[in-house]
Amino acid sequence: MTNARFNLGNVTAILGTQWGDEAKGKLVDILSKEFDIIAKATGGANAGHTIHVPNPLNPAETAKFVFHLVPSGMIHDGKVAVLGNGLVIHIPSLIEELDTLKQYKIDLAGRFFISDRAHIVFDYHKKIDALEEEQKGEAKVGTTLRGIGPAYLDKISRRGVRIGEILDFDSFSDHVRKTFMQLKSQYKGLKHDIDEELKNLRDFIGVLKPFITDTSLFLNKAADNGKTILIEGSQGTHLDIDHGTYPFVTSSNPTIGGIYTGTGIGHGKISSVVGIMKAYVTRVGSGVFPTELTDETGNALREKGGEYGSTTGRPRRCGWFDALVGKYAVMINGLTSINLTKLDVLDDLETIKICTGYKYKGKNLESMPAAVEMYKELEFDYIEMKGWKTDTSKAVKFEDLPENAQNYVLKIEELVRCPVNFIGVGVRRDQIIHR
Ligand code: IMP
User: Fold this and answer.
1) Is a pLDDT exceeding 60 seen at residue 220?
2) Which of 42, 235, 372 has the most ligand 1 atoms within 8 A of CB, as the residue to mutate?
3) What's the pLDDT tens digit per position in 346-374?
């Protein structure tokens, strides 16, 4: 790929358009080199991605980095990474990731910032997450058990604890204890040593202090001064608390609205919004999945696509591309372009199906139903396309793709109504077509 920043403008958001795990990390990694600042807006350690890059200590070797909280752009020299106010941060997990970077002699000074308004995930949030799931039984969400929901719940209940508070440890401790006591009276089964957790957190103040700042101010000033900013979305549109398949969703807004509120950057400054769309669909955890394949084809997609959760290792459910899911994401997020990922995973298939729409009581639906109960009565329309039975992993230009693969991409573009400008054909950084 040539053409620095691909005419994306100065401030670009990258968003998941399905149920997360659309392989956002690769485009983020490619673009991180072209942007000055890489920021995150929502979610927490429920997300995760692994990248393989030259070992900073010995470039002849490859090093594997697993990131949950820190933007992967941190590994590129001189890039600035920002954790915005919309995140919920488990401090020991963050420290662990920062320690890994330090082991590779990656200097963080002056190029890593955490919003003073981001909320803290405490260990008791993780325990509450597990208790909630246990209580739901069959109806459990299948969360990542990282305490994300309970931390956002505290934020919305206005008893949450912001990361900036840690700098005044005494009043921070009072606030934490008070919140914890409220939760303890609510969750009878909650067993937790709050003193121990506070004692451990005290040790991290020195490490965190230089990084904590008003990141909204920082990002806006940077944008005003012509700096380029890449905002890395988390999860995906259909896991959105408002627009997703509620209640089987995460507790934040992984859609464009979450980018604004989670960074403090207003819509006028955002120049492009790229949606990451896998060439098929996957989902981890419970919840509706209209195009799910529970047969051999689903298993084949899982194995070839390496579809196992990067945070929990759970096997991902796999299914055909769902154009309504894609079209809805284009609409909600105002996408300006699409990166279709993992096209090569379909290389061996004889025929490939695309779900083109849903019917309810014989009527075509224009958008995703709000009530999960309705899904039981839906009918799904499919088209069947010829596979290409050819290795696409070496394609560099769109024209290098077999005709049937080109037709597949063009059909998706037509159905979701947004240009597919990037096409992923393998795991390596260079296996991406720009058109
Ligand atoms: P939570 O975000 O841990 O509360 O989980 C809520 C739902 O979102 C569950 O179905 C999770 O599997 C799903 N989820 C959360 N984070 C991710 C992610 O990064 N990729 C895919 N699914 C996710």
Assistant:
1) yes
2) 235
3) 999 999 999 999 999 999 999 999 999 99
Nearest-CA residue for atom 19 of ligand 1: 47
Q: What integer pLDDT is reported at residue 311 of this predicted model? A: 78
Average pLDDT rounded to a whole number, residues 276-288 = 96
- Strands 11-16 and 337-341 turn out to be unpaired
State the CB neighbour count (10 A cutoff) for residue 95. Answer: 17
- Report whether pLDDT(6) > 80: no
Residue nearest to atom 10 of ligand 1 (CA): 285
pTM: 0.95
Give the count of beta carbons closer than 10 Å to the beta carbon of residue 424: 25
pLDDT tens-digit map of 114-158: 999 999 999 999 999 999 999 999 999 999 999 999 999 999 999
Write down the pLDDT at residue 309: 86
Alpha carbon nearest to ligand 1 atom 21, residue: 20
Tokens of 43: 């979610």
- Residue 428 is predicted with a pLDDT of 84
Question: Ligand 1 mean position to 285 CA, how many Å?
Answer: 7
